[in-house]
Amino acid sequence: MKQSLDQILTAKENRFVLRQKIASENKTSLSFTLNIAGFPKSNELITTFFNTILSELKIFLLANRIIIIDKNEINIIDKAGNFYLTKINNKNISEKEIKIITENFETTHKLGRLIDIDITDNKGNPVSSGKEKNCYYCGKFPAIVCMRNKSHSYNELRNFIFNEIENYLSIKKKEKIIKKLSSIGLKALLYEVSLTPKPGLVDFNNSGSHSDMNYFTFLDSSSALAPFFRELVHKGYNFSNPELSHALPIIRNIGLQMEIEMFAATNKINTQKGLIFLLGINLFASGYYFSKDELFNIEKYREIIKDICKDITKIELKNIENPKTHGEICFQKYGFAGARSEAEKGFPSVFESSLKILENNLPSIELASKEKISMALQKTLVKLISINNDTNILYRKNLKILKKLQSLSKDVLNCNDFENSYFKIADFCRENNISPGGSADLLAITVYIYFIKAN
Ligand SMILES: [Zn+2]
Fold first, then answer.
1. With bands split at pLDDT 50, 70 and 90, how would you rate the model's confidence at 314?
2. Cα–Cα distance between 201 and 218 in angstroms, integer?
3. Ligand 1 centre and the CA of 30: distance in Å?
4. pTM (2 d.p.)
């Protein structure tokens, strides 16, 4: 213990020397340390926490126009713990003001009582605001009083600190995953909507077989849906019921609110109802997945989807007396369960077919040209059209037309001149006034999974 204390004192003396060196260059310095009781002052967890807070602090300083001179910035671990020191350019701001701003960082931060930011002026003197910090453990008395009175044992303090840090880091991690997944959700949707040309579907230049909507209608509805993505991922992340089928009403509940917003944004036009269901399940399932696992495993992920959608066809489509929705009508007439069947089986069209096509044609998204991305997405879409029993087509037409479209798409995919024969599918859709909307939804899901895997 005695040796440790000596080592801490030596480390603190070194820090003092470093600060004085900056002052001797007539510069102000800022240092950041953590208030860790007992010994050792640093470990892996503390260092992760320290670096997390340091990145937050740097953004905060920049936002407040406090400019770090990052040449020669110091970030070390010594016996006194983690230590960061930098020169700051204070031409436009007084040292007192800097102190007030950094104190604001401490007081508004959730774990601010663990954080110490010190400012040393260009004469080498500490800049003080005269405010006393309260003890981070009890919060009742100034820290210095609890320390002097030895009010709390080192064990108590350290357990408390480590607990707080772990909680903080896990919330940070969760927040990062939720942001990432909801952003990929929006990306998937935008990639699908923007792909031009698309047979029978709305794209940037054409409205396909839809006289009542255009590209902007899709932007309107996409924007109305996007704010719900976060909530879906969040609910998935927090879901703790071992019975995953109980998740479906939660997803549906958000999905129904999304439908209301979609219809409000599009003047009552159904642009993305199918997508809301399919993407909703995937946003939720991926949130759930990444709350437990870091690496993406397709089989594990598909099991989650299957569990969420267990028996959905049986429950929702069989024994319906008066079918009303497109899905219900198609199931009664043809026995195809459309999107529900895909979901129930863990998206076989995506995981067993279309994802491979997309990955083979787009091994990396980085530096890929617009043409390359478009071509990869078109091939993926054609693959989906060739295998999907799309209820959008069955509802508008019949099984014969669907089979013809599927076989034409197979031919296009297998021929040597994809680029030119691709247009034959658009011609066919135009002649028959059909739109492979279900396949477009699955394209968005394929893109969603593609980017989850790539991240
Ligand atoms: Zn206390």
1. confident
2. 11
3. 27
4. 0.93
The pLDDT value recorded for residue 455 is: 84
Distance 206 CA to ligand 1 centre (A): 68
Mean pLDDT across the chain: 95
Closest CA to 434 of 195, 198, 200, 197: 200
Tokens of 97: 């003001």
Stretch 299-303: mean pLDDT, rounded? 98
Distances (CA, A) of 181 to 101, 228, 453: 33, 12, 11
Domain ranges of the chain: 2-141, 167-454
The per-residue pLDDT for range 223-244, each reduced to its tens digit, is 999 999 999 999 999 999 999 9
Alpha-carbon span 389 to 400, nearest angstrom: 11
pLDDT of residue 1: 62
pLDDT digit string (tens) for 78-113?
999 999 999 998 788 999 999 999 999 999 999 999
Tell me what pLDDT residue 91 has: 83
Q: What is the pLDDT of residue 377?
A: 98
pLDDT tens digit string along 400-442?
999 999 999 999 999 999 999 999 999 999 999 999 999 999 9
Q: What residues does the ion ligand 1 have nearby, CB within 5 Å?
A: 135, 137-138, 146, 151
Of 128, 132, 63, nearest in space to 95 by CA: 128
Supply the pLDDT for residue 419: 93
Tokens in use for 348?
């076989």
The torsion region of residue 347 among left (phi > 0), alpha (psi -120 to 50) and beta comes to left
C-alpha to C-alpha distance for 245 and 334, rounded to whole angstroms: 27
Token pair, residue 121, equals: 């002026």
Distance from Cα 289 to the centre of ligand 1, integer Å: 40
Structure-token match 């009742």, residue found: 140
Query: 139 alpha carbon to ligand 1 midpoint, in Å?
Result: 6
Instruction: Tell me how far the alpha carbon of residue 355 lies from the centroid of ligand 1, in angstroms.
Output: 57
Contacts (Cβ under 8 Å, ≥6 apart) of 327: 317, 337, 338, 339, 340, 391
Rounded Cα distance between 433 and 230, Å, is 36
